[in-house]
Amino acid sequence: AALPGPAPADWAQAPLDPAVRAVLVGFDEHFSYAKLCQALRYLLRGGPDCLLVGTNRDHRLPLEGGTAIPGTGCLVKAVETAAQREAFIVGKPNRYMFDCVVSEFNIDPARTIMVGDRLDTDILMGNSCGLTTLLTLTGVTTLEEVRAHQESDCPSRHSLVPDYYVDSIADLLPALGD
Amino acid sequence: GGGMASCRRLSGAGLREVLGPAQGLLFDCDGVLWAGERAVPGAPELLERLRRSGKAAFFVSNNSRRSVAELERRFSRLGFRGVRAEHVFSSALCSALFLRQRLLGPGGTGNGGARVFVLGGEGLRGEVRDAGLRLAGEGEPAPGAAEPVRAVLVGYDDQFTFAKLAQACGYLRDPQCLLVATDPDPWHPLSDGQRTPGTGSLTAAVETASGRKALVVGKPSTYMFDCIVERFGIDPSRTLMVGDRLETDILFGKNCGLSTILTLTGVSRLEEAQAYMASDSAAAKDLVPNYYVDSIADLIPGLDE
C-alpha cells in the first residue's frame, strides 16, 4: 500500500490489518525504515499475542568472488532492537528445522550425519541435536578456524567443532558401495 | 555525585537545597521541554527564571534529525525565548565534531578529502558538511573508485533501505573505516502513544552485517558532555542533568559525574526507576536518578524570585 504521507508520523496513521498475528522477518532486499515501522506497530499492538519470528540469523550472504551482502540476521536484529524483544528463530543453529525432519521421517540422531560448511549454523545445530557432524571445506569455513575453536578455552566454542571434515562431499563416494 | 542514587521526589526545601548551589543545568529536549509540537507547560518560564537566577542552561539531545539551526527555530516556535545556538548540543552536531576530530585531526584541516557515508536526513548531513567533511553519495560505484570513505555514520534515517545497508557494509570492509552512530535509542515516542524505530535499531543492522561495534556519540556516552566542557568549561559537581529517559539521560548524568533529575513528562515511568533501584544488578543502579519531578515546571519554586 502507498505510504499516507512523507514522514513516520504519517505512516503511523495508516490502518493496521486487524487479522495480523505475527511478524515474520526473512531475507528482504527491499527492507526499509517504513517496513520496520509497520513491524513495530504490529508488535506493539499485539504484545505477546503477536509472534515475532525470524527465518534465520545469518549475518552475511556470501556472493561469488568473495564479497557478501547483509544477511537476514541484520534485519531481525533491527526489529528486535526497535521492539525490545527477542525473535523466535526457525533456522540453524536452532533445532526447529531438525525437529520438523524428525517428526516427518522418524530418524535416529545417533545414526544420522549432518553435512555443512558453516560452523555457527550447520555444525552447531548438528552437535546440539546429537548428530554426527561433518564439515566440508568447499564453503565459507577454513580448517584454521576450526583449530582455533578447538584450542579455545571457551567451552561454547567447542560446540562449533565438527566430528569430521572432508575437502568436498565428493570425497564420500569411495565409502559408498557399488 | 558518588554513592547510590535514591530517586527522591524533589520539592519544597529539598528543591532549594539542590538548585541553590547549582551553576548550571543540562536539559534533554524531547519529553522534557516539549512533547511533539507542544511545549511542556511551564517549561519556557523555567528557562527564563534560570536565566534571571544567573544559572546556565545547556541542551543535550540524542535526536539526530535536526541541525542546531533547526533546533534553534524549534525552541523559538514553541515559545522558548533567548536560547542561544551555542548552548544547544545535538547528536548530529556532536557526531560531526567527533568525525572532524578523528578524520581531520586536531587542527581540523588534515586529509580534506575525507569522505563520510551518512545514513540520515538533511539535518545530519548538513552538520557533517559544516564540520568540513565531504559526504559519499548514495548508489556510488564500489569502494576504491574515488577517495576512500573514512567513516560510516548511522543516524536516524527514515529513508533507510537494504541497499544503503549493503553500501555501508562495503565501506566497512576497510578496517580503517570508522563506524559511528549518533545515538543508541531503540525507539522514540510519537504523540499518539505509538513508537517509531530509533537509530539504535539501524545501528544493530549495520553492526550485525559488518561484524563491527559502532562508536556511539550520543547519551549515555560522555562525548557530548566533553563537547560542552570544551566549549564552556563547566564544573560537573555544580551541574545537574535533567532528562526523561533512564537508559540514556540518567545514565549519561551518572557517567559524567552529574546529579540527575528524572522528569516524568516523557519516556520513562517512575515504576521503572523504582524497579532499577530494587534490582541486584550493579548496572541497574546506575539508571536510578538522584531525584524526580512530575515536570520541569516543578523546579520553578526552587529558584530565587
Automatic annotation (TrEMBL), chain A:
Membrane topology field: Peripheral membrane protein
Keyword match Cytoplasm: yes
Keywords for this protein: Cell membrane, Cytoplasm, Membrane
Keyword Membrane: yes
GO (cellular component) term, any one: cytosol
Subcellular location, record wording: Cell membrane; Cytoplasm, Cytosol
Domain of life: Eukaryota
PANTHER family: 4-NITROPHENYLPHOSPHATASE-RELATED, GLYCEROL-3-PHOSPHATE PHOSPHATASE
Name of the protein in its database record: PGP phosphatase
Species of origin: Nyctiprogne leucopyga
Lineage of the species this protein comes from: Eukaryota, Metazoa, Chordata, Craniata, Vertebrata
Gene name, Swiss-Prot/TrEMBL: Pgp
TrEMBL record, chain B:
Places the protein is found: Cell projection, Lamellipodium membrane; Cell projection, Ruffle membrane; Cytoplasm, Cytoskeleton; Cytoplasm, Cytosol
Binding positions (substrate): S61, N62, N63, H188, K219
Keyword Transferase among record annotations: no
Active site per UniProt: D28 (nucleophile), D30 (proton donor)
Oligomeric and partner information: Homodimer.
Reactions performed catalytically: pyridoxamine + phosphate = pyridoxamine 5'-phosphate + H2O; pyridoxal 5'-phosphate + H2O = pyridoxal + phosphate; O-phospho-L-seryl-[protein] + H2O = L-seryl-[protein] + phosphate; pyridoxine 5'-phosphate + H2O = pyridoxine + phosphate
GO molecular function: metal ion binding; protein serine/threonine phosphatase activity; pyridoxal phosphatase activity
Protein residues bound to Mg(2+): D28, D30, D244
Record's function text: Functions as a pyridoxal phosphate (PLP) phosphatase, which also catalyzes the dephosphorylation of pyridoxine 5'-phosphate (PNP) and pyridoxamine 5'-phosphate (PMP), with order of substrate preference PLP > PNP > PMP and therefore plays a role in vitamin B6 metabolism. Also functions as a protein serine phosphatase that specifically dephosphorylates 'Ser-3' in proteins of the actin-depolymerizing factor (ADF)/cofilin family like CFL1 and DSTN. Thereby, regulates cofilin-dependent actin cytoskeleton reorganization, being required for normal progress through mitosis and normal cytokinesis.
Gene Ontology CC: one annotated term: lamellipodium membrane
EC nos: 3.1.3.16, 3.1.3.74
Top enzyme class: hydrolase
Pfam families: Hydrolase_6, Hydrolase_like
Domain of life: Eukaryota
Cofactor(s) of this protein: Mg(2+)
Keyword line: Cell membrane, Cell projection, Cytoplasm, Cytoskeleton, Hydrolase, Magnesium, Membrane, Metal-binding, Pyridoxal phosphate
Name this polypeptide is given: Chronophin
Membrane topology: Peripheral membrane protein
Family per similarity comment: Belongs to the HAD-like hydrolase superfamily.
Main location: membrane
Cofactor note: Divalent metal ions. Mg(2+) is the most effective.
Organism: Nyctiprogne leucopyga
Family annotation (PANTHER family): 4-NITROPHENYLPHOSPHATASE-RELATED, CHRONOPHIN
Gene for this chain: Pdxp
